[in-house]
Design a protein that fits this description.
By secondary structure, the chain is mainly alpha-helical. The chain is built from 2 helices and no strands.
């Protein structure tokens, strides 16, 4: 998640720096400059929302994969436990049979 937060921070920082530079070097009127800034900020806002949605989708995929892997581990452990129980029951049965014969 660190790379994603770094990426988002980079986008926000870039937007702010770009806006500041545009204000300093704008040869246009104040209204046109404000309109352009508003348009750019709107685009950055949309991009940021898209990135957030992408991160949410990736998170859901990762959580789903983790749940699947966790379920598989639990199922494997359960099967191994059942096998061990069966072996222990067979061993006890053979011990009881040996006691009865002896």
């Amino acid at each position: 998640m660190s790379r994603s937060s770094d990426y988002i921070s980079g986008i926000i920082s870039g937007a702010l720096v770009g806006a500041a530079i545009a204000l300093l070097y704008a040869p246009d009127t104040g209204k046109n400059t404000r309109d352009r800034l508003s348009y750019r900020l709107s685009n950055y806002y949309d991009e940021l929302n898209d990135l957030i949605e992408q991160l949410r989708e990736e998170k859901e995929i990762l959580v789903s994969e983790a749940k699947e892997k966790g379920d598989k581990v639990v199922l494997d452990a359960k099967e191994k436990a059942e096998g061990l129980i069966k072996e222990a029951e067979d061993l006890l049965e053979s011990i009881e049979t040996a006691k009865k014969k002896g």
